Amino acid sequence: PWLMQPVVVECTLFLDQYENLIRGVDWEAPKWQAFFAEEAEVQRSFRPVEIGGRRYQALTIKRFLLSPTGAGRIEIPASQAVCGIRVQRRSSFENRFFGPGFNSLLDDQIPIRLPIAARTIDVRPLPVEGRPASFQNAVGQFSFAASVDRKQMTTDDILTLCLEVAGEGFLGSLDDPEFPKWKDWREAGKQAETTPGSSSFSGKKTFEILLRPEKSGALTIPEIRYAWFDPEQERYVEEMGGPFAVEVTPGKEHELIVVGPAGQGRDAASPRFFGEQIAYIHPVLPSATSWTPLYERPWFWPLQTIPLLIILCGLAMRFWRLYIEDHQDERRWRSAGSRARKELREAGASLHRGHTEEFYSVLGQALRDYIAVKLDRSASGLTLEEIAQTCRNRDVPEEKTATFIRLLEECDQARYLSVKPDPARAREALGEAARWLKELDRHL
């Protein structure tokens, strides 16, 4: 293809049987990096074709119109087609009762991915030789026409100049013509409209320019040229519209006129944009300060969510507080081990500072608080005999129970006897307490 000449790219599925089992066919088209891409409509139905003496059922999945934006070797990237194949899992009763075409709820759909290889095209650049000055990148087979809606008018009227480019090619390449300098005319507006044709590449683009005369007399709208490159003839084609002679008589200043849709209003000769009448508007309008309503400002709606967020946070805090109150005993039971280990570290800090009496006091209290929480009892009224009996009932090994009781007795002796505790023995007791605490976690 030539630069900007449309290329048809389509993905088609060919089947030699089982076309009634195909479901959910689609083409994961690649990103068209070097093209102007436009998806075209396709008829999603199977049609018989013959390739190499073999008959197939063909289904066109998608079709794109690609207009290359650069010259040289351009790759159409690799992609994938996907479809589902229905696998029948019907009972013999369903086969007998409903027949072979029945879609059972037990049927499975297996996804199939079909790779499509990349393709490369060689895009030819547009020739420089013979390129007219009016060429505006249009590529295709087109025709050009120009017309005006009146040949006689007053200085109060507006003339509509209509330019139409029609034919086959990439309509997106039809840019505005190169307009001449409007001598004795003032441009009052400009608009363009694209109308697709019956085929994928056909259509027309219409340009309308509103012109108002700046003086009366015999005025002329100069000729307008439009050029395009014809890929079939491999050459540039240029056509011309105009010039147009217009007789303009003096008028009087128009006041503001409000007109309705086409066919209504002041008169049928009112200026129009594509069939809609235009109203005359004074050149100088009174200035007015525009005020944007609150609900149209970007911060208004996000601000409305703040009360809702406050309510949700309050509900969440209330539910969390109720949950803590309902599960307070469970949380104390679960956190007994971690709390006891924290107190053991505090006892170790007291021992490191040389305060052995304080060490045994903290150690004994930590062990009693731990066992009281595990047994769901008060630490102040819990005796050593009750601790020993409960540990035996919980299948705690006898030697572990004896060691735990001995540690508690040692803590009591250090607190209430006048004998100064041995620091070396205190360090051993701290290690034993840590080991037995870990062991008791398995049984209590």
Structure description:
This protein has 444 residues and is α+β, with helices and mostly antiparallel strands. It has eight helices and 20 strands. The strands form six sheets. Strands 13-14-12-10-16-17 form a six-stranded mixed sheet, with no helix packed on it. α4 (336-352) runs antiparallel to α5 and α4 packs antiparallel against α8. It is elongated and about 130 Å long. Mean pLDDT is 80; it is low at 255-266.
Global morphology: elongated
Biggest sheet, open or closed, and with what strands and sense?
A: 6 strands, mixed
H and E string: EEEEEEEHEEEEEEEEEEEEEHHHHHHH
- Neighbour order of strands in the largest sheet: 13-14-12-10-16-17
Helix proportion of residues, in percent? 25-40%
Give me the number of helical elements. Answer: 8
Mean pLDDT, as a whole number?
80
* Topology, number of strands: 20
Beta-strand proportion: 25-35%
Structural class: alpha+beta
